[in-house]
Every structure is written in C-alpha cells, then in structure tokens.
Amino acid sequence: MGTDQLPQDKWGNNLGEIFRALLTERGITEYASVYSTAEGTELPGGLEACSFWILTPSDGKLWDYTIAWDSEKLNPDGEKGYYTLTEPREAAGWEDKPDYIRARKELGLPFTEEQERILREKGKENN
C-alpha cells in the first residue's frame, strides 16, 4: 500500500469517508475538522475506532464524536453490523489552540480578542 493511500475497511471506505457519511446521516453537512485520534480498538469492519473533533457553524461549538460499531445496523452488504457514531460530547479547552482557531476561520466564525492576538503572533512568526 502506498503512503498516500489510507487504510480501507472491507467495503472499501476509509475512516474519513465513513465519518462524513455518519455525520450526513445525522444531518451535519457543514463543519470543520479540528483534530482526530485513533482509539486503539479494531472494529469488526477492519478499521480502528477513531475520535474526531469538529466545529459546527450552526452553534459554534466543538464536538467530539467517536466511530463505534452497531451490531444491529445494516452494512452495505445488507447484513447486520456497521459503523455508528457515539453521542457527541461538547469539548472544552481548545479555544487557544491553532487547529481550533483555523477551523473558526474556515467557517467564518468570529474570534475572541485572545484568538485575534494568537493569529497576529502566528502571522509575525510566518513572516
């Protein structure tokens, strides 16, 4: 497998594709990704459970979702057992992190004074 190819499950999907599809099932189509991390547990579909932190423009909040397994949900083969999302948890403590600030900018959300200061300092570093 090339380094540019992400691992795929037995149906040919990678975690990003699965996550986007599961968010769409919940009606979430506009968001910015902030962070993701593997959970260390392999799911029956062949991929590792993973948590994703996303920022949504509708409420301006940061949400933590984890891809999990639902043994009753129908998979693409029409059999039981497929991915699901855990109930989201609101994440806190990210307000001054560059990835969070980038996501706010991507979504056109306003910044706090502290976030504006961080952006100015980061701009000076890049010049």
Question: Explain this structure to me?
Answer:
- With 127 residues, the chain is of the alpha+beta class.
- 28% of the residues lie in helices and 31% in strands.
- It has 3 helices and 5 strands.
- It has helices spanning 15-25, 98-107, 113-126, and strands spanning 32-42, 48-55, 62-74, 80-85, 89-90.
- The chain is elongated and about 55 Å long.
- The mean pLDDT is 91.
* Helical/strand content category: alpha+beta
Can you write the helix and strand succession as a string?
Answer: HEEEEEHH
Beta-strand percent range: 25-35%
Radius of gyration: 17 Å
Low-pLDDT windows of residues? none
Number of strands: 5
Shape: elongated
- Give the rounded overall mean pLDDT: 91
Descriptive keywords:
single chain, 127 residues, alpha+beta, 5-stranded antiparallel β-sheet, 3 helices, 5 strands
What would you say about this model in short?
The chain is α+β, with helices and mostly antiparallel strands and 127 residues long. The chain is 28% helix and 31% strand.
What's the arrangement of secondary structure elements?
Elements: H1 15-25, E1 32-42, E2 48-55, E3 62-74, E4 80-85, E5 89-90, H2 98-107, H3 113-126
Antiparallel strand pairs: 1-2, 2-3, 3-4, 3-5
